[in-house]
Amino acid sequence: MAGKKGIAALVPMKGHSERVSSKNIRDFSGRPLLFWVLKALHGLNGLSAIYVDTDSALVKDTVRQHFGSSVKFIDRPHGICGDTVPMNRIIAHDISLIDADIFIQTHATNPLVRTATFNKAVDAYFKAVERSYDSLFSVRRHQSRFYDSEIRPINHDPANLIRTQDLRPIYEENSNFYIFSRDSFSRTSSRIGPKPYLYEVPRLESIDIDDEEDFKLAEYLFGFQGYGEAHE
Length: 232
What we know:
Blueprint: E1 7-12, E2 27-28, E3 31-32, H1 33-41, E4 47-54, H2 57-67, E5 71-75, H3 87-95, E6 102-106, H4 115-130, E7 135-142, E8 170-181, H5 182-188, E9 196-200, H6 212-222
């Protein structure tokens, strides 16, 4: 599967979803959920191609309906189908079929991420590589008081309650996107290399839809006046 060297966007979309039925093709603000991230990716600077990895004919038909031939497909082999297959195994299969140097991997479940954010992240990746980072992944910054399951404080001292804005930040891997090179992935078999750069996504864009509450919250945020129209 050939394409010019450059940045390839990879968007895995399985047909089955455990927590939200038919999630990727479900209506979201008047379009299938998968529409929004693919629309945003079409404006990515330096893009060589967008690839949708899927095991679903319905997903393929839905993508073609909205994007024609501008999106390419990778048929997911039976051996790496299912809810428990690690994403890095799927990525390893997919990039073996794509002729590109740099990959940005995201999900249909990130409908709020804008084109501008993708482009800023790509720029940040190349600047980070110049400083010896090997990959980039999106995060959400938290400065709140956290405890583990044993009620042990993680990032604060309950006996010394300093202001939350002065707490040591904790960063959540929010699954909005990952940027990595073929070389980095080949060394670690992982989209996150040994020295990754953390890229903070604006809070209103950072929801990754895992369950029904996420879906409703994301659609509510998307419906704010001017947000859907400004999804660029």
